[in-house]
Amino acid sequence: MPLSRSSLNLVFAIVVVVLGSTAVVSIYQKTAVPEVRTPPAESGRLPANHPPLDVSGKIAALQQLSAREPQNAEYPVQIGNLYYDTGEYAKAAEFYQKSLGLRPNDPSVETDLASCYHYMGQDDKSLELLDRILGYSPGFSQAKFNKGVVLIEGKKDVQAGLAVWEELLRSDPGYSQRTELEQRIAHLKSSPR
């Protein structure tokens, strides 16, 4: 059965809309700003056998965007995240601080900054920042988790770290890493010190 001219036009219009939508989604995915991510629960360091990450092109592109939009606090965060992922914590901290200068009291960014301080061996500074975050955002679970990490790994104060983690589990029953954290607590409690 041959299609009428109006049917052909309709089919053609549908094909154009589908192709156009696909192109728009593809372009958006390539240029969309990723969400702020949370730092790794464990050490952010890459395994010894991990191939080196080449993020220089991404950093350069983000720096260009940041230069065009100097009041956009998200670009320094993304640059900081890239440096964080490659283990360049001092550079990551620099960009997190730049973002916080534009958008203060962002608990996610400040928690990432506190993680940088921990990995740079500045555990007192990390704890001070985490306590500040928990002062203005007491329910921010990632800051509580990271405080436990710094206390246990950095300060070697297992009891204080466990107390923070147990408080986290009480205050956030839906904590996304609950099972893993409960296992970690049980392991630390059963380990000889």
Textual characterization of the structure:
The chain is an all-alpha fold and 193 residues long. Among the domains are: 53-104, Serine Threonine Protein Phosphatase 5, Tetratricopeptide repeat (Alpha Horseshoe); 123-193, Serine Threonine Protein Phosphatase 5, Tetratricopeptide repeat (Alpha Horseshoe). It contains nine helices and no strands. The chain has helices spanning 5-31, 56-68, 74-85, 89-102, 107-119, 123-136, 141-154, 158-171, 178-190. α6 runs antiparallel to α7. The model is unreliable at 30-44 (pLDDT under 50).
SSE order and pairing:
Layout: H1 5-31, H2 56-68, H3 74-85, H4 89-102, H5 107-119, H6 123-136, H7 141-154, H8 158-171, H9 178-190
Helix pairs in contact: 2-3, 3-4, 4-5, 5-6, 5-7, 6-7, 7-8, 8-9
